[in-house]
Amino acid sequence: MKEDSLLVNAGRHPERFQGAVNTPVVRGSTVVSPNLDHWLQSRKRQAAGEFGVSTYGRFGTATHHALQEAIVDIGGGHRAMLYPSGLAAISSVLTSLLSAGDHVLLTDSGYYWTSQFLESTLVRFGVQVTRYDPSLGSDIAALIRPNTRVIYAESPGSETFEIQDIPAIAAAAHAHGAYVVMDNTWGTPLYFPAFEHGVDVSIQAATKYIVGHSDAILGIATCNQRSWEKVLRTSQTLGQTCSADDAFLALRGLRTLGVRLKRHWESGVRIATWLEARPEVEVVMHPAIPSHPGHALWKRDFRGACGLFAIGLRPLPEAALHAFIDNLRMFGLGVSWGGYESLALPFSPAVRAIARWPYAGPGVRIHVGLEDPDDLIADLEHGFDAMAMAMRKTYECSES
Ligand SMILES: *Cc1c(COP(=O)(O)O)cnc(C)c1O
User: Fold this and answer.
1) Which residues are recorded as modified (N6-(pyridoxal phosphate)lysine) (predicted)?
2) Residue 149 catalytic?
3) Ligand 1: which atom is nearest the Cα of residue 207?
4) Which overall architecture, per CATH, does domain 3-26+61-101+172-255 show?
């Protein structure tokens, strides 16, 4: 089946649900057996890791199983585990693979809370953490120690959008028996085939494009055969689960992921290109535009892009940045992304230890939603006009 047909059909079994097109929301805690023999068999099959067998709501219901099945059908891998948030998926996977005395290499371009979890929480349990430059490919081998168990990647990086050479990193990791864990939220299972590129665990903040409507928080970790047992057992002992309602919303989001992403990608590139020509903008960081330093790698390894990127503004007074943001009507001011709506969020990438922000002005992360791009461009123009007015005012004040 081709991608779009898979998105429609993956994980659906109408015959099991009186013909209902969608797997219903199956809420529940207790799962009863018709007799003791069935109960004992079910427990055994579940302990052996058989897919779709559950003796308790915490281990999932039909709704959860439908999402787990669909994600593997679409993005590859062996099995998928669900979590109450993207961050819970990240922290649980890292806890599953690391023990006291182990070493983890963490990309310096990682999501803020991932770095926080490793550097403030896991270090308390005796895990050593070293950040690495996201531009490293096979040269990462020089940083691998005998106790390196995990190389953590995120491509493109949060806020700064560096594309990593994942196949080269995976080859170096596997030569030393280490796991490659990747935050693949930007690429989604559709546009970055993580397992074909050597990733062992691919993590989705499903909160973003999979749910796609800014109405649920959810995480998914898809594992290959090598990592699955460890991730499953530890996640189970951590009590990880998610609500059937949220799993249902993720399944609903999946059906339209293909068409939504195409539009986010197209509008994102159009607006990024328009912004690149603006005098107020020093740099545009969108992997799908040719000026991006990771463009060639993106073209080699990704099958598409999305609506999330960043710009670096030329240095400007604080009041002018406020005027720009405050006068945007269609771009909301808030965190998260991947919903149908556009967002613009100023950031200061001071958290980077190695890949320092080389620009004098502030950054603005932009999520291009599903609105008409002409309206979005008009909105940005309006914001830039307000910025110019605020700049003139600042200069008049400083002159008088
Ligand atoms: C949002 C995000 C997360 C965390 O997801 P939550 O569901 O908010 O916990 C992880 N990684 C990336 C790249 C994100 O953007």
Assistant:
1) 208
2) no
3) 7
4) 3-Layer(aba) Sandwich (3.40)
Q: How far does residue 129's CA lie from ligand 1's centre (Å)?
A: 20
Q: Can you tell me the distance from the alpha carbon of 212 to that of 249, in angstroms, rounded to the nearest whole number?
A: 9
Q: How far is the CA of 337 from the centre of ligand 1 (A)?
A: 9
Give the tens place of pLDDT for each residue, 255-300.
Answer: 999 999 999 999 999 999 999 999 999 999 999 999 999 999 999 9
CA 87 to ligand 1 centroid distance, Å? 6
Q: Which CATH architecture has domain 257-399?
A: Alpha-Beta Complex (3.90)
Condensed to tens digits (0 to 9), the pLDDT of residues 67-122 reads 999 999 999 999 999 999 999 999 999 999 999 999 999 999 999 999 999 999 99
Q: Using a 6 Å CB cutoff, which residues line ligand 1?
A: 85-87, 111, 158, 183, 185, 205, 207-208, 217, 219, 336
Angle in degrees, CA 341, 342, 346, rounded to 5: 140
Considering the chain, tell me which residue range(s) the CATH 3.40.640.10 domain(s) occupy: 3-26+61-101+172-255
Q: What is the distance between the alpha carbons of residues 326 and 386, in angstroms, rounded to a whole number?
A: 9
Residue of the CA atom closest to atom 6 of ligand 1: 86
Q: Give the dihedral of Cα atoms 196, 200, 201, 202; nearest 10 deg.
A: -20
Active site residue 183: yes
User: Range(s) for CATH 3.90.1150.10 in the chain?
Assistant: 257-399
